[in-house]
Amino acid sequence: ASLLSQEHAGKLPNKTLLDVPKDRFHLVKILFFFYGLNSMLPMNFFTVANDYWMYKFRNTTYDNWDPYHRTPLQIYYHSVLSIVKAVPMMIVSLLAAKYIHKLHLRPRLLCTTFIACVVFVSLTIFVVIDTDDWQFMFLVIIAIIMTVLSVAGVIYRLSQTRLLARFPILYMKFDMYGSGCSSLFSILLQIVSLSIGNDPISRAFIFFVCGTAVVILTFILALASDHLQFYRYYVGNSLEDTQQPPKKFKELIRSGLCIWPSIVQFLILIGAWMCTASVTNLIVSEHYGNGNPWNAEECKVVRTSFISPGSYIQSTVFFLQRSNGYRKADPNFAST
C-alpha cells in the first residue's frame, strides 16, 4: 500500500497543505474503521455462532443437541465451511490480481458491501425459519452463501487496499484497528447474546441482528462518503486505473518475490485458519455437564477464542513500525 500511496501522491494536484480539505468530524477515519471491521466480521460470524449452527444441524428427535452424540452434519459443518471459504478465495485472488483494476473502485466497494448486507439479512431470516425437515439443503444454502461471501470478500479487501493507498498513512491505522477489533467485537457480541438469550434461536437472532446493523451502517457510510470533500480529494478519478492493461504473469511473479515473506505468512494463516475451527469444534469440555454455565458447549467458542486486544496491539505495533520508516524517509510525514 505504501508504494501505491507514493504513486498516487504524484497524481494529486500540486497544492499546499492549506488547500487540502479537512476531515470534518473525523468521518473518513470512522469510515475506514468500519471498513476494517467489515473486512473480517462476516467470516467471524460463521465461526463464533457455533451453538446456533450445531442446533440447526442437531438430531431433530431432541430439543437440544448433545456434543457427545453429533450428527454427520454437525461433524462436517466447519470442514465444509473451510473448503468453501479457502478454495474460492485462492482462485479469485489470482484472477483479481490480474484483472480487478478494470472495474471502478467505488462500485467494487459498494457492491461487495451490499452483498455482505444481503448475506446478513438472509442469515437473520434463516434464524427464525424452521429448517429441521431440510437440514442438508440448509447446509448447501449456507455453503453457497459462504462461497459468494468469500468471493465478495476478496474483491472487497483488494479494493479496500487500493483505496487506502490513496490516503495518508494515518488512515491505514484506523483500518487496521477495525480489522483487529473484528474478532473481539464478534466475541463480545456473542457474550452479550448468551447473557440475554434463553435458547439458541433467540441468542442467534440477537447476534445476527447486531451484525446486520453493523454491516448496513458500513454500507450507509460508504454511500455517504462520496459527499465528503476530503474523501473525494484523495480518491480522485479511478478511470485511469481501468484503462491500464492487465498485469502480465511475469510482473505478478516479480511482485510476489518482493513480498514473499508476507505470502508465506498468509499461506500459513490460511492453513491454520482452515484447521482450527474444524478441530476445536469437535472438542468437548472436560467438565461438561457439571452444572457450571461456563463449561456449557455454547460458551466453548468464547473460551477458546482470543478474548484479548492482541490483534489491536499487533495492528498498533505494525503501524508504529511503518510510520517510523516513513518518518526516516520523509521528514514531512507528521504533517501528512
From TrEMBL:
Compartment(s) of residence: Membrane
Statement: the UniProt record of this protein carries the keyword Membrane: yes
Membrane topology listed for this record: Multi-pass membrane protein
GO CC annotation: plasma membrane
Protein keywords: Membrane, Transmembrane, Transmembrane helix, Transport
Keyword match Cytoplasm: no
GO molecular function: nucleoside transmembrane transporter activity
Ranges annotated as spanning the membrane: 32-55, 75-97, 109-129, 135-156, 177-198, 204-224, 257-274
InterPro entries: Eqnu_transpt, MFS_trans_sf
SUPFAM superfamilies hit by this protein: MFS general substrate transporter (SSF103473)
Family according to the record: Belongs to the SLC29A/ENT transporter (TC 2.A.57) family.
Record's protein name: Uncharacterized protein
Organism: Callosobruchus maculatus (Southern cowpea weevil)
